[in-house]
Amino acid sequence: MASSNHFISFAIAVILLPAVAFATEYVVGDDNGWTTNFDYQAWAKGKVFYVGDTLVFNYIAPNHNVYKVNGTAFNDCIVPPDSEKFTSGNDKIELKTAGNKWYLCGKSGHCSTGQKLSITVSNSSAPQPAPSSSSAPAAIFFSVYQVFIALVVILGVVNID
């Protein structure tokens, strides 16, 4: 009976695995990291951020930091006392809710020289990448395999003892 339970668990995992949305990890500023004199709005342009994605802020601590602020603080380059602060130099911030998000460096003069980021996070989940033409046969096989496993589980055709 234990073997049968393991098989059913495995079959369910195989069936559901492709349905899981894949979150994206964005390194803010790419190779430039989190620094002054960089256009983070240009970096973010064209990117679509989804709930579940992660922003990674790479910088040399304690030369920089990251504050999660509101829109007014972002525009004015100020850090309200209740702002969430990150100081590790490799800060990973998961985007947990949809809407506008604002981040800035709280070091004196850094925000005014461009070290700030504003993004909009979409409420929908990230789209699945379409299979390329070279992977289409594998995708078809995998789909047929999933259907077969589902039928085996549903119909109880296999008796493992």
TrEMBL record:
It comes from the Eukaryota. CDD domains: Phytocyanin (cd04216). It holds the Pfam family Cu_bind_like. Keywords: Copper, Disulfide bond, Electron transport, Glycoprotein, Membrane, Metal-binding, Signal, Transmembrane, Transmembrane helix, Transport. GO terms for molecular function: electron transfer activity; metal ion binding. The chain crosses the membrane at residues 138-160. One of its GO terms (cellular component) is plasma membrane. Residues 24-123 form the Phytocyanin domain. It is found in: Membrane. It is a single-pass type I membrane protein. This is Phytocyanin domain-containing protein. It comes from Ficus carica (Common fig).
